[in-house]
Amino acid sequence: MSVTFTRFAETIHCKEDKRVVSVTVKLLLEDCTGTVYFTDIQAQEGDRLTGYTINTETMLQKYREGGVIVPARFYNGVVRSGETVILFNLGSTSAGLDCHIYPIQNMEAGSIQLSQGAGAHRVKFKEAASPDDTFSLLASTRQCLKNGNPTDKEGFFQYTASGDSKHVVKLEDRKSARLLFEFQEMQEGSERP
Q1: Would you list the DSSP string of 140-189?
Q2: Residue 191: helix, strand or coil by DSSP?
Q3: Of 20, 51, 97, 121, which sees the most CB atoms within 10 A?
Q4: What is the per-residue burial (b if ≥16 Cβ within 10 Å, else e) of 24-54?
Q5: Tens digit of pLDDT for each residue in 45-58?
Q6: What kind of architecture, by CATH, is found in domain 61-187?
Q7: So where are the chain's domains?
Q8: What is the pTM of this model?
Q9: Residue 154: band (very low, low, confident or very high) from pLDDT cuts 50, 70, 90
């Protein structure tokens, strides 16, 4: 007997100035026979599936060109106050993003923030920053670090969407930081056995 899983997606619209406290999901079936397995639910900001979490139908593999795995991509730059950074992800699906931030001036606690596109999937570093600090938000290992040691964050690990991926960097006003973004592009792999 073969079990087929189907992935359903639905966008929940809520007032943008309100915080979502809870979500209730009810499975409703009518006029059916057989067995139904309700396995996973994932909630995320935005109106598109990210593909960052492997689903039950397809495995992901590292992006290949001509059969050869493409090495990890690195993008760097300098941001003052705030900027939208665009990363080019040639993979066919989203991938986890490792972010390294090197403050150039002192900054208050909570003043370094990252988010996706129009501000979704936001994360804020809770500690103050000085010029000799390194903040690392590593989706690849699910770590948030300050100078190599665990530190608190408020929000989400980042990912890079397939194609042009927009990332909003916000810093304390008139302060600057160097950035280094790193990710391994991914593509859909072979079907699970």
Answers
A1: TTTEEEETTEE--EEE--EEE-SEEEEEEEE-STT-EEEEEEEE--EEEE
A2: strand
A3: 97
A4: eeeeeeeeeeeeeeeeeeeeeeeeeebbbee
A5: 665 555 555 444 45
A6: Sandwich (2.60)
A7: 61-187
A8: 0.69
A9: very high
